[in-house]
Amino acid sequence: MSNSHLFLKSGFPKAPLQNGLGRYIGQLKRVTLKFCKESGASRGMRDFIERELVDFAKENPGVVVYVKPRRHRTPVLVGEYLNGTREWINCRNFTKEEVTKWLELMRTQSGPSGALRLRKMWHTDVPSIQGPWTPFTLKSPETNLVVFPSEEHSKPLFVEKSATEKLIELFQKQKLEDGDLDKNRAK
C-alpha cells in the first residue's frame, strides 16, 4: 500500500440532503466571481458578467451571486455548497463560453468531486481483499427471477420448536421409556 493517501483530504461521506426523495434542491448556495477590471486574463470573465450574469441570476434564484473586482489578480470562480464544501476554479484566459460551462457544472453538481480519503468508525489491521460483506453476498442469484410474494420464499429458513413442543416430546420419550421398563420387569 502506498502512502499517497496521506496527502488526500479525509472525511466521512456526506449525503446531499437526500436529494431525489422529494423535490430537487440545488446544492450550490453561493457563487463568487472574482476578476480584474484591467487584466487581459479576465476578459472572458468580464464578458460573462456584462452579457450573461443577469440571465444566470434570474434563472437560478436559489444561488446567491457575488461579483468581486480585484486589482492585478487572476480571475476565479468560487462555489460554496450546502454541505459546507468550497470549490475554486481558476479562470485565467477563459472565454465567456468556458466561464458559462464551468458555472453550469458548479450549479448542477453537489460539491467538489475531488478525491477524498474516506474515514470509517472501525479499523482492522488485516483488511479483506474480497470486499465488504452484504446481506446479498451468499444469496442464490435465482432469487432475482422470483415473482414476489412467493410461498417458498415466505417460509422461515430455520423452524425451531417452541418450548412447549420440546416438553411434550420429552414427556412422550419418558413415557415410552417407562413403558419399556415395565415390560422388562414383567418378564
From TrEMBL:
Keyword Ribonucleoprotein: yes
Localization, UniProt: Mitochondrion
Entry's Gene Ontology BP terms: mitochondrial translation
SUPFAM superfamilies from the UniProt entry: Thioredoxin-like
Alphabetic keyword roster: Mitochondrion, Ribonucleoprotein, Ribosomal protein
UniProt xrefs under Pfam families: L51_S25_CI-B8 (PF05047)
Gene Ontology cellular-component annotations: mitochondrial large ribosomal subunit
Highest taxon of source: Eukaryota
Protein's recorded name: Large ribosomal subunit protein mL43
Organism of origin: Hermetia illucens (Black soldier fly)
Classification of source organism: Eukaryota, Metazoa, Ecdysozoa, Arthropoda, Hexapoda
